[in-house]
Amino acid sequence: MAQADCPNCAGTGWRIVEQPDENAEMRVVAPANGAHAGAAAGEGKTVWAVPCDCTVGDRRSRVVDRARLPRRYVHCNFESYDTDLGYRSSEAKVWNHSLAQAKLVVQAFARDFPVGAEHGLLLMGPCGVGKTHLAVAALEEIVQRGHSGLFYDYRELLKEIQDSYNPESNSTEMSVLEPVLKTEVLLLDDVGSSKPSPWALETVGHILNTRYNEHRVTLLTTNFLDKDFKRPAVTLPSGEAIAAPGGDTLEDRVGMRIRSRLYEMCRTVEIVAPDYRKEVRHAGFHA
Predict the structure, then answer these.
(1) Cis peptide bond prior to 237, omega within 30° of 0
(2) CB 274 within 8 A of CB 130
């Protein structure tokens, strides 16, 4: 919403731009990027209206809402992603390098999209290493440039689709599935977090296969690792080792066919680091 006391647009949300043109008669030029053309004021000028700067915050909010980005992640951007855990040890250098490399890969993906975006990204690592942070930062940067994108938590998406089977529900299966299948960029967060069932695996497989066949990009995050995940030969500052939750691998949680599909449609980005929320924010010390 425009600011009522804005000196540039007087609360209309649009400001007038004039460009002198000595060789042109009075004319109206079709605006670009959603701007609205106005009547030319005098000869030799091109006059048009563009969104006022006072509406920028409101536009960002609308874009975030359309992409279904949760409010708890609105602060997530590449600038706020910490690649220095603050520990002073040889292990910390490995962790910081892993965080920095992940940031470089995801930031480059977002910057270059849609160029070279024939593959999505699968961010894989233990809890608290910033996988969702990076994925959200990429998605928001892309949708702010005008591309379509959606954020879905893995469990919430399955539940929403399952609920659509209920005849008393206001939504139908296709009304839920179609945006997920058609959006340019889908961010599916916390893949494998719900226990696998034949129905869930079939549904997720359908979504991924459709998007892959239609050359649409999918970003995924998961706490479940592969068997050959590059685990460091050291323990975390808390004394715990980096391991897949419950000992399950990603293949255990999504099945061999879906894991194989992910190899084709995504570049896997492994992040090796401690749980930032647990080890850094709450440890109260630096080794």
Answers:
(1) no
(2) no
pLDDT in tens, 31-66: 445 444 444 444 566 676 766 766 555 667 888 889
Range(s) within the chain of domains with CATH label 3.40.50.300: 67-280
Sheet containing 266-270: order of strands? 149-153, 185-189, 217-222, 120-124, 266-270
pLDDT tens-digit readout, 126-135 = 888 999 999 9
CATH number of 67-280: 3.40.50.300
List of residues 6+ apart from 6 with CB closer than 8 A:
52, 54
Structure tokens at 246: 């419950």
Q: 222: which 2 tokens?
A: 């998961």
Q: What is the Cα–Cα distance from 93 to 87, expressed in whole angstroms?
A: 8
CA–CA dist 200, 188 (Å, integer):
14
The pair phi, psi for residue 124, each rounded to 5°, is -125, 130
Alpha-carbon span 76 to 125, nearest angstrom: 18
* Cβ proximity of 34 and 97 under 8 Å: no
Cβ contact 70:187 at 8 Å: no
Is 70 exceeded by the pLDDT of residue 28?
no
Whether the bond between 232 and the residue before it is cis, its omega within 30 degrees of 0, is no
d(C-alpha 259, C-alpha 255), whole Å: 6
- DSSP label at 239? S
For 221, the 3-state DSSP assignment is strand
Indicate whether this model's pTM tops 0.90: no
Containing 174, the helix (H) or strand (E) segment is: helix 173-182
How many helices (H) does the chain have, and how many strands (E)?
8, 8
Residue 40, beta-bridge partner list = none
For residues 35 and 50, is the Cβ–Cβ distance under 8 A?
yes
